[in-house]
Amino acid sequence: MASDFNILKQRIDEELARQDLAGQPAGLYDPIRYTLDAGGKRMRSVLVLLASRLFTDDVEPVLPAALAVEVFHNFTLVHDDLMDQAPIRRNQPSVFSKWSPNHAILSGDAMLVQAYSHLAQCDSSHLPHILKTFNKAALAVCEGQQMDMDFESSQEVGVGDYLKMIELKTASLIQLSMELGAVLGGASTEDIGALSRFGNHLGMAFQLQDDILDVYANTEKFGKKQGGDIVAGKKTYLYLIADQLSNNGMQSKLHTAFFSKELTDDQKIDEVTQIYNELKVVSQAEQKMQEYYDKALSCMEKISVNNEKKQDLLLLADRLMVRDR
Amino acid sequence: MASDFNILKQRIDEELARQDLAGQPAGLYDPIRYTLDAGGKRMRSVLVLLASRLFTDDVEPVLPAALAVEVFHNFTLVHDDLMDQAPIRRNQPSVFSKWSPNHAILSGDAMLVQAYSHLAQCDSSHLPHILKTFNKAALAVCEGQQMDMDFESSQEVGVGDYLKMIELKTASLIQLSMELGAVLGGASTEDIGALSRFGNHLGMAFQLQDDILDVYANTEKFGKKQGGDIVAGKKTYLYLIADQLSNNGMQSKLHTAFFSKELTDDQKIDEVTQIYNELKVVSQAEQKMQEYYDKALSCMEKISVNNEKKQDLLLLADRLMVRDR
Description:
Structural class of chain A: mainly alpha
CATH class of the largest domain in chain A: Mainly Alpha
Radius of gyration of chain A: 20 Å
Number of helices of chain A: 16
Number of strands of chain A: 2
Oligomer: homodimer
CATH superfamily of the largest domain in chain A: Farnesyl Diphosphate Synthase
Helix content of chain A: over 70%
Number of domains of chain A: 2
């Protein structure tokens, strides 16, 4: 499996490298090349290919859709980094900080168009379906990002709002990956539906895992600084559960630490993490994550292909859940 | 014709008003509603419909493509206003200044996706062709905008560079409008090509007219402050021709006035306009504009439908050329 995954990832990397991006003007195309060359796990595009392989051995006709999803995902990173004022992405300066906000806006726009150019390469018989599915997911991602930004200044974010937000911002793209792979692999309507729901649940579990790892990951392996969400004041699942579980005294301690402008980053991380530990929020988050993961697995069971065929996708899903913690 | 044009424009307005944009989150959808409700001539979408009417009487199947072009055009305005830091659009605050840069980025992104959602409503037999054509034009518009921004800080912009830039940024969308209308109207390959070239030339003439009107328009009718391009330091066709035609003394006078940080806006406009007058740049620009317009007309002649059918489109083209000066 590991090597299979790597072969597919390599295939994506090759195709992205082949994309004609030596174009002019350089101010438009250099940031795109830089973004697509910066690596990344290519998780979403590999998921498209793995989904299709449940139903077909030929991934070639599926590649354009995989590339569309990958370029779309990278477009969101370029614009999100600007909107979130995040100076670093994959250990390098983000596009807006290396070039300028305008370069990030425009090269991001061009990447969104290029995602559709990849999609347009898919077999025309599938085009109406996959274009509609892609548009719906793309709009969902925008809605999720707006909710995420709204939450920053809102005092009234509930756990339910948060789950809705991550469904739109994160899960919808994993769901899209599954659906595109299924459609282009020639799956039945029932199997397309089941795989789509599998993607949705997997995406939810994936984001909750991400929230947990931000606080409890082995930093070296995970590659991000521990507690980044706390420093950024991001109201993650952990924070919202802590907010919900804490009594008055504990809650005001949480708010004081979380919104403090006096504490150093490390102090803030220490204090908030200590409250998380006392309230055992991580076990709650893991339980929720497991719920989604179990739902995903039960969707996978409904898909009418033999279990052997499902192993690659299940192994990748499993690997996403035990990421380097 | 005038009433025909108004009927088509009204049809576009109605369809845009019907678009479901009462959605949540409001921070995403309110700026979109605001932008699409702010009016505008709907020129590009009406051009799509008029192009199709050369070949068919039924505009209904063409409407989704017309809406796609209109929403795409409005997306470019939202992002361009942010990149150009232009606080006013159609006599109202532009999106980034009414909300925030982040709202402009994200609602613009969502509009680009919505443009594709409209396109996806077109008959599936035409979808591969029109999606490819749309993508090409959309990327060209991004390239043109990048060149336009590059020109701001460049000392070496030639007239040829400028013509390339406006071809990408402006003409390609008029060209797209013509091509989409022709394809969906069921035109032959030859007629699609001829109408596409008509659109390209008309777009060039349109932009040169825009450059001229910025300096020489009847302000009240044109709706923009006279000399806006001069105040913004935009190197238009007029400026580049003046730069090319002027001898050393005149050229340094032009540069001093154009790049001055001491002069008031009105003084700057007066001095630069005086140089334009002395060099008769407007007659050069009008000549170039006429060249493109003549090329457009000769493309129209090649289209294999009777002259009567062409009258609406020719009248609109003519009206674009004699805009309220």
